[in-house]
């Protein structure tokens, strides 16, 4: 699969609709941090990922059943690579939630918003913007204030940083392979790869357990159907029809929603330094992606 640059074209019609859809997705994902954190107390991380994404893949597969015979090699290869990177990101994120707060997890994952346009500029050969470099430096300072406890760094925070890097790579892959592909089929391949990878992980570690508690079933239903099947369809379409920087900016709202949910639902607390670090990260996100800019946009896929 080639990750070469795509020629800039006028922004596709309907891209605003998908961008607005991503705003709704970020609100949902912000809430699911709390849902997942509660669920993995009662079921293994490996099993939760397997059930979540295999369920999501089954839903998308049923909706795209008539189109399966038209799947192209580009959709298979692109979806497999994006899905593999996505699995790494979610494995790190879900494991990290066992060792850090919802608010920390969300804000650190939000670093992908700053890192995505930087990586996209490198891979897609778009013009470098000083605002992005300044935003990255500011975000790193904010991250240190948010995560440092004395002279140590929380293990969960380190896992979340790896998650942010994985999501950054996955975002750029979608920006590369999304145009010219069928969104539903590309989404199906991604979700299937994540689900099968999670299932293999459970087999290797002996962690395959059946959901028992009602709260786990609820968490799986919420994260599998709206939180994965619908959300990743919207995300795949959004990155195919708009610039990576624009969609990444919208995704900056995820740590905001998650922080609020962590405060209201999980009893997360903040020190002055924590709040300062979180504020710097949000400022870095805005600095990197606001102001006058020339966005890189792409042709939409051939259908949904």
UniProtKB/TrEMBL annotation:
The lineage of its organism: Bacteria, Bacillati, Actinomycetota, Actinomycetes, Kitasatosporales. It comes from the Bacteria. It comes from Streptomyces rectiviolaceus. Residues 18-147, 155-287 form the EamA domain. The keyword Flavoprotein does not apply. It is found in: Cell membrane. The chain crosses the membrane at residues 16-34, 40-63, 75-93, 105-124, 133-152, 158-177, 184-204, 216-234, 246-265, 271-288. The keyword rRNA processing does not apply. Belongs to the EamA transporter family. Pfam families: EamA. Keywords: Cell membrane, Membrane, Transmembrane, Transmembrane helix. Signal peptide: none annotated. It is a multi-pass membrane protein. This is DMT family transporter.
């Amino acid at each position: 699969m080639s990750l070469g640059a795509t020629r800039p074209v006028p922004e596709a019609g309907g891209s605003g609709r998908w961008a607005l859809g991503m705003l709704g997705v970020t609100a949902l994902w912000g809430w699911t941090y709390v849902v997942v954190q509660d669920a993995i107390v009662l079921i293994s991380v490996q099993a939760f990922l397997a059930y979540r994404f295999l369920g999501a893949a089954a839903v998308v597969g049923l909706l795209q059943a008539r189109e399966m015979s038209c799947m192209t090699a580009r959709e298979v290869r692109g979806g497999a690579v994006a899905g593999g990177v996505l699995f790494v990101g979610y494995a790190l994120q879900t494991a990290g939630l066992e060792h850090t707060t919802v608010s920390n997890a969300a804000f650190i994952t939000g670093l992908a918003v700053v890192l995505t346009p930087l990586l996209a500029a490198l891979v897609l050969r778009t013009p470098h913007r000083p605002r992005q470099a300044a935003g990255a430096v500011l975000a790193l300072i904010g991250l240190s204030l948010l995560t440092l406890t004395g002279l140590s760094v929380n293990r969960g925070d380190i896992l979340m940083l790896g998650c942010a890097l994985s999501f950054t790579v996955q975002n750029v892959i979608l920006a590369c392979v999304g145009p010219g592909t069928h969104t539903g089929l590309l989404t199906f391949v991604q979700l299937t790869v994540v689900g099968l990878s999670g299932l293999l992980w459970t087999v290797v570690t002996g962690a395959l357990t059946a959901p028992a508690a009602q709260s786990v079933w609820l968490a799986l239903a919420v994260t599998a159907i709206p939180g994965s099947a619908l959300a990743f369809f919207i995300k795949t379409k959004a990155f195919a029809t708009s610039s990576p920087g624009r969609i990444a900016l919208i995704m900056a709202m995820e740590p905001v929603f998650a922080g609020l949910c962590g405060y209201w639902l999980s009893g997360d607390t903040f020190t002055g330094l924590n709040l300062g670090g979180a504020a710097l990260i949000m400022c870095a996100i805005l600095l990197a992606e606001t102001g006058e800019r020339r966005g890189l946009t792409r042709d939409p896929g051939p259908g949904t």
